Amino acid sequence: MVFNIRLMCQEDLTQVNEIDHEAFPTLWPPPNYQRELNNGLAHYIVACDDEIEYKPPEPPEDAPQKGSSGLLGRLRLLFNHHQPSNNEAPPKAQDYVYGFAGLWLLAGEAHITNIAVREKYRRRGIGELLLISMIELALELGAHLVTLEVRASNTDAQSLYAKYGFVRVGLRRGYYTDNREDGVLMTIENVTSAPVQANLRQLKQAHARRWRMTAHIISH
Ligand SMILES: CC(C)(COP(=O)(O)OP(=O)(O)OC[C@H]1O[C@@H](n2cnc3c(N)ncnc32)[C@H](O)[C@@H]1OP(=O)(O)O)[C@@H](O)C(=O)NCCC(=O)NCCS
Question: 160-169, long-range: CB within 8 Å, 24+ apart, which pairs?
């Protein structure tokens, strides 16, 4: 399987919000990814496929047609404003996004803010691919440490981080505002050191062998 790993862009926001909502349904308000796009400290990536086109979920049959109800909608219909004219370019096809991840770089420390994979594509190595890419991005940005918080109950994600050398370094009591759950603080210190780098190289090779996955890193 071939994945493109690239920086998140405006066109990805619908899918990123969709994935976020599925992965973190109790998080309210949800992160404002539009704002993150304009935040100089934030760096988000997506794992996507440009050969599969994203199709937004169909609205339920009895849902009112978007834009056709209300005064504005009726006016649009009346004046045909919403119909693309013959010489108007059709909307650009959107790459299918499987998952995304983000970090903030603060004083040489990369704080991973999020990592999520669409539920139906989990357990196929995509989370790992995103984490590898996040660590590589952190290194490119000059980070010496990579850190994150994870819910105490989220043992799946903790296993992923532990596999990549994150060590539990603390507990933030009641860190999550929705249910006052504790946040486990996990960190890879000295991420540029030779032993950490050697371990990452090995894990990356093992991941590539196991999943026969090719990742094209696309830089803008
Ligand atoms: C955490 C998450 C990103 C992992 O993505 P994924 O694509 O399923 O992960 P991978 O297939 O790459 O798995 C990599 C490793 O993660 C761990 N892992 C992932 N899912 C697991 C599960 N259900 N049970 C146990 N370990 C799991 C394992 O260590 C696994 O390595 P292994 O295959 O050698 O056992 C995904 O489960 C997800 O999106 N969860 C919801 C969002 C979330 O909790 N994000 C983390 C916030 S801190």
Answer: 160/127, 160/128, 160/131, 161/131, 161/186, 162/186, 163/128, 163/203, 164/128, 164/131, 164/132, 164/135, 164/188, 164/200, 164/203, 165/196, 165/199, 165/200
- Tens digits of per-residue pLDDT, 15-73? 999 999 999 998 878 899 999 999 999 999 999 998 888 988 887 776 655 554 555 44
Report d(CA 110, CA 102) in Å as an integer: 10
How many CA within 13 A on the CB side of residue 78? 7
User: How far, in Å, from the CA of 138 to the mean position of ligand 1?
Assistant: 20
Work out which ligand 1 atom sits closest to the CA atom of 128.
Answer: 12
CB atoms within 10 A of CB 187: 19
Q: Which residues of 96-135 are buried (b: 16+ CB within 10 A; e: fewer)?
A: bbbbbbbbbbeeebbbbbbbbbbeeeeeebbbbbbbbbbb
Residue in 143, 80, 83, 135 with CA at minimum distance from that of residue 107: 143
Please indicate whether residue 165, judged by its CB atom, sits closer than 6 Å to ligand 1.
Answer: no
**C-beta of residue 147 within 8 angstroms of C-beta of residue 111:** yes
pLDDT attached to residue 58 = 82
Residue of 20, 123, 149 with the most ligand 1 atoms within 8 Å of its CB, for mutation: 123
pTM of the entire structure? 0.88
Nearest CA to ligand 1 atom 9: 127
- Structure tokens, 50: 């440009």
